[in-house]
Amino acid sequence: MKSTTDEGIDEMRSEYHFDYSTATRGKYYRRLLKDGANVVVLEPDVAKAFRGSAAVNDALRSLLKTSRAKRRLTTRSSGRAKGARR
Q: Within 36-84, where are the H helices?
């Protein structure tokens, strides 16, 4: 039976060694801002209702379309001003 030594435990392949002193903080941050990436966290019960981000986007676009249509129906016409007499 082989005994385990401390030598073999800490050995890692060379490709897994990373020099964090050369890392750039927030490397992709500006690109995400430029592309307009937003992260929204859904409550678990809401998340269960949707298959993915595309389904959420479709539902929100439908809601926006409905609210715009309703807003148009309730706005005043551009004709005569309210209270004007004939």
A: 44-47, 53-74
